[in-house]
Fold these 2 entries.
Entry 1:
Amino acid sequence: MNSGFILSWIDYSVMIIYFAFVLGIGWALKRYMKDASAFLEAGRSMPAWVAGLAFISTNLGALEVMGMTGSGVKYGMLTTHFYWVGAIPAMVFLAMFMMPFYYGSKARSVPEYLKLRFDEKTRGLNAILFAVMTILASGISMYALAILMEKVLGWNFHLSLILSAAIVLAYTYLGGLSSAIYNEVLQFFIIVVGLLPIVILSLKDVGGWHGLQQSLAPIVSSKGFAPDTWTTTWKYTGSAAANPMGVEWYGIFVGLGFVLSFGYWCTNFLIVQRAMSAHSTTAARNTPLIGAIPKMFIPFLIIVPGIVALVLMNTPGKGFTLPLNAAGQPIYDYTIIMLLKQYLPAGVLGLGITALLASFMSGMAGNVSAFNTVWTYDIYQSYIRPATNNKAIDDKHYLFVGRMATIFGVLVSIAAAYLASLFGNIMDFLQTIFSMVNAPLFAVIFLGMFWKRGTGHAAFAGLLAGLLVALLHHGLTFPAGADTLVKGGWIAHLHAYPVEMAQSFWTAIFACSTSTLVTVVVSFLTTQKKSDQELTGLVYSLTPKLNEEAVPWYKRSSTLAIVVLTLVTILTILFW
Amino acid sequence: MGIDIKIPIGLMFTILGLLLTVYGFITRSDAALYTVSLGINVNLWSGLGMLVFGLLMLALSIKSKKQKPQ
């Protein structure tokens, strides 16, 4: 990077105050951590608004913030598809139709739901894949944080890595999931407050939204698109060539809006765990709905500044440039950091940097707290030391194991971060592969919840087949202009997609369809070993309807769901 | 569980808000500092905003404590 930031005492003071509170929350929760349930499930006691903000904050990791601002430069408002059609319907579906089974089954994790609904091997496969995937993700995010600290603040790479890992370890070790969740809420507010000045200042600089549209027109036209492509969402999705994403409306609708987003939001334990920590079924259902409201406004916080950055880059007088990578290409992911530098004086600059640090830690702590739950309940308790009849001893023992898993998780994350620094491509590849797990998993869980005939053997076969098809599709196709095998085509070059995104949409669509097909076919070939009684609370048709009459109408999930869907429809129309 | 998260959120934003408000007030005539932010004293405004938010959170936590005495 050409030039670093110079932070003053006021910036460091803001940072230190924030981290003092982060650690303080962990410390204050320490005395409540009496058993494994308190540590790993937050004792199922969270109010819906706390769980809801944590739900959205876990997803608002720094890689997301940096990546989405970068996408704002590259695709403009089209990036909002990841927030509106690509998240809200799935979150509403999770709340209304899936949460009653996740929560009501008393399962402590998504893999455990699979065990209750299907069988042990399906749980085992999912638990192991999930455990490896979360640790890997946590390592990659730590690596990105340390690189950022090194390049931007001039801090030592190793010191940043160890220090951030130590802070996350301290508060998750002390207060477990509760501590992770409470800190995610704190992080959510600091991210909003820290980034808001950039949104206001950058928009003011280009003359507001209308000024932005006017300044964008010549820039966008010179790229060969219609002048308002960067400030609209669906208008130019009639053909793939008319928009910078290179995907048509049905690709966005089916690939992103259905397969990818339902796969991510409805099955990822990292996310679902937040809702499972709520204090009642209604609170658990309201968690994703409450999270959906800030979710749909996050684009204004992180995508809009990215769009302004495109104008700044093309206005010589502004002195705004993105750092270049080794190949001479601008590093779009650094847009948000360069904007911090462009607009913020000492004081709020410290706040902005703290917001970025906070988002890194929220991603990392989320991964670690999901990992230790799956490890303790789904791997250790299932295969290594099953529960005994002595509940008191068990509680203590699993609490100890949960704490050790936290330390172990952080240590392996550090190792993964160093691996990422040595073999960046391999880590990217692994992450791509693991991202393929979600689409088949959604197919299997969906069938499990809504079709009582689905059997254990079928679920296992469906999961495995979906995964293999995803791998095969990734190995046989590649995005145009791919220079590494990481992007695909490592078996043969059968088909070329115009952009990487189209490839990942289609990978997910193929995986999800295969998984559905295999699960249905194998279910008919095998017998259902679970009785109707065993499946009560796990399958829609065998579970008594949820009665919300005792809840006042304005607190009911259905009311909230209507509000959420109405709001997102209004936003979509406004920015059509 | 255990603690009311509104208290730490309220305390933190009150402290940070005070810090930035005071810093913004002291540096209000430092034109060089605020050239990057288009001449706007963002420290003062952000600080005041955070202070209001922090105090609101604290007020809400006192209110919910009164409703549910433990």
Entry 2:
Amino acid sequence: MNLEYPRYLKAGEDGLVVEFGDSIDPEINFWVLKLEEILEESQILGIEELIPTYRSLFVSYNPLILSFWELQEKIKELIPFLQGGRVRAHKLVRIPVAYGGEYGPDLEDVAKMHGLTEKEVVDIHTGKEYLVYMLGFTPGFPYMGVVPAEIATPRLENPRVKVSRGSVGIAESQTGIYPLESPGGWRIIGRTPIEIFNPIRKPPFLLSPGDRVRFFAISLDQFEEFTLSGFLPEFEQR
Amino acid sequence: MKTPFLKVIHPGAMTLVQDLGRPGYLKYGLPPSGCADEISFRAGNALVGNQAGCAGLEMTVQGGKFQLLADTLLAITGADMKPRINGHPCPMWQSFLTRAGDILEFSFARSGCRSYLSVSGGIEVSLIMGSRATYLTARIGGLEGRPLQPGDILCRESGGGEEGKCFPPQFIPEFKETQELRVVLGPQDDHFTESGLKTFLSEEYTVTPQSNRMGYRLQGPPIETVKKGIISDAIALGAVQVSGEGQPIVLLWDRQTTGGYPKIGVVVKPDIWKLAQAKPGDKFRFRKVELEEARSLYRNYVHFLLILENLVK
């Protein structure tokens, strides 16, 4: 951790932001997730919600119970405990994706921009585990990284008005999945039949910050099968 | 017992089932939704003898036309949309009994922007993730996650309450066309120049038509930034984001939970209802408050709500 950090920032009368850095970096995100875990375990009276993002943790609290300064002191006391160790077991989720064609309209461009074949892009995209840094944009949208430089691609210049639910995209060195049909500017390389958000399922969200995701390629036929069977991916607790 | 009590003849501009919202899912990217003007909403439920969390209708700008299907105790709070029962003006901020067959009709908001119809027993729709609040983006809550449509039939639970309950006039909020929003600066006030902060805290900002439950886009003298973008982080209720063009956007109940614009400040909770009741063309000024003051404003606000709800018990 840099000496300037952590910083404690005000977010209204009931929000405190603990900022650990100013870049998208798995190491900085580790501090965020570790503090979230420690605060959850600490059960400090008055803390209401914790929102981990790339490089900061948002702590919402009840100002009738805690003041900003009291909460800041309590968090400062916990900072030494962030050193060492690892974040508690998060899960590894294997997510099937039908790449290219109608489901991945930007796969061809991504391949061309990097002088690769479509298959090479798929092999690279499925070739590693991604960390879920945070969820946002629409309910359950996972911001994941780090996408290898060979296939990292800027957003579309003109975002699409409509991106289908389940679309898997790349934006710079991040990859994500659209939980709902929505507008969007990420380069869409494939689509998953998995519902990453289903409000009437328990739990409604497939992924949490800190989870890891590994994609695997499926055919169009398998996509249909998975959709019909309501296939849920296997988890591996880490 | 579930009773069909209301048939939608015309839903108005946008009428949604709302309650106090769906907290607890911010880290998954799900905003809380829920009633926009908490004071009017809580007042309505209290008048008809409900718990604070019972679901009611939130009508925006223009109210609907409804037919009562069962005798029902109602209350109307929030914006004045000239409500009428069978053509006769009916009271606001007061509980009143309606009969099966009655026609309840609203017009355009005269003052304020959102009107609430509270129903003894509360509107009965499925709980989705612990709430009945409609969240249009994800199409969840309320009636299939959408605004009301002609022909919809709403059910209520059986409830108690008495007719003729009302508040002393000083408890009824005034909806003015120019209001002050008190803000705590941060988390990214250091992303703005001194002159940008001065502009923000001294100029007047007008509500644009691009304002909705996600956020209110205001327009006025541009706020000068040092840095236009940040690495996306979490957005609090009432956070004032400043766009690339230097215009403030106040993020509200159905907001994106994360975003990459710097946030100059956060509007205090006790002032959020002012945004709920603001229409395009209305004006706001921002006033800086220190954290300690914001905290005591919050304490007073919670007391106010408690007193309000207990006054009509």
